[in-house]
Amino acid sequence: MINVPFVDLKTQFRALKKEIHEAMEGVFDSGCFILGEKVKRFEEEFSAYCGCKYGIGVGSGTEALHLALVACGIEYGDEVITVPNTAVPTVSAITFAGATPLFVDVEQQTSTMDPNKLEDFLKREIKLKGSSTIKAIIPVHLYGHPADMDPIMELAEVYNLKVIEDACQAHGAEYKGRKAGSIGDAGCFSFYPTKNLGGYGDGGIIVTDDINLSEKLKQLRNYGQKNRYISPIKGFNSRLDEIQAAILLVKLRYLDRWNEQRREKANLYNNLLNDSKVESPVESDYARHIYHLYVIRCEERDILKRRLESNGIKALIHYPIPIHMQGAYKHLTPKECSLPVTEQHCNSILSLPLYPELENCSIEEICRLINECDT
Ligand SMILES: *Cc1c(COP(=O)(O)O)cnc(C)c1O
Questions:
Q1: What is the best residue among 111, 112, 169 to mutate for testing ligand 1's pocket, by most ligand atoms within 8 Å of CB?
Q2: Measured from the CB, is residue 62 less than 6 Å from ligand 1?
Q3: Which of 12, 22, 39, 139 places its Cα 20 to 30 Å from the Cα of 248?
Q4: Angstrom distance (rounded) from CA 305 to CA 193
Q5: What is the pTM of this model?
Q6: How far apart are CA 15 and CA 85, in angstroms?
Q7: Secondary structure, 3-state, 289-300
Q8: Whole-Å CA distances, 137 to 142, 255, 307
Q9: Cα 275 to averaged position of ligand 1 atoms, centre (Å)
Q10: Could you identify the atom of ligand 1 that is nearest to the CA of residue 142?
Q11: Quick check: CB of 57 below 6 Å from ligand 1?
């Protein structure tokens, strides 16, 4: 029996060990651990990679979203629109900012925010409430596939809303040739170890072209300080540290290669599952998908998951419970709220192992089991 873990960070580390050790040693030798040269350089390189002017390194992806909301002026009593099929932190960030999340359902094909439903939702809400408390939209580039940003940006313009992209699963993904995270007012990334670009601990960054936003974020992450010991605004402590920045500078150079390997492996899955009953993920014409996750859909999902696991293959569900049904957040959503695509997807989605180091023979075995399960 083969044994295929869902992710494998050890193989990648073995290949990079020397570079990583040197980078970390450099930080220890420098004696500087917070907001030094490495963070500055990483902010420059990562924002340039995204095609943005500014990068602000913070403590996590959740904090990137939270601080971006605060910097955009979101406060207590405001409302922020996002999707229900996301990682919980998208919504924690909204509530950290004191705002209330509102949920718009997703597209059938990409599982990302449906611009038509967003438009209907905005029209209905504005009619209902008159002047609106809705202040921002957070589209999520789920699984590494960008949301359909052009119509979302148009609606944001019409309704005067900020757009903060949750690009925590989309390092290097593209929308019509532009990098995910570079399209809205701000783009937020996580460097959680299993992301396409991951550190060896927590970390995150916000990218933006807006200098005012950038300046505000630099204060917010560092006690609200403008200069040392001078705090004109209330702030937080949320900083990317020098060790993580040094590691990420090494790994950033491999990101495109790793994403390309993910794409090749996703294609192999697609080809081998072509005749099966499961639905493979689809890449929209506008998108360059970077397959943070390879998510199939099938009716008999639980049976298939058990069968894979009894054959040594780990598969997961992203995400089994939509946010509007989570204990912590369900009271925020009206009972009559209907999010049928999300609810249908969460019963049929299954994430298969996918990482740059995954062996093709493992993919062949996984697909053989899936195809067998069909008959
Ligand atoms: C990982 C992730 C986050 C949170 O990132 P952390 O660094 O773990 O705080 C937010 N949103 C999405 C969609 C994510 O996948």
A1: 169
A2: yes
A3: 139
A4: 24
A5: 0.97
A6: 35
A7: CCCCCEEEECCC
A8: 15, 28, 39
A9: 34
A10: 13
A11: no
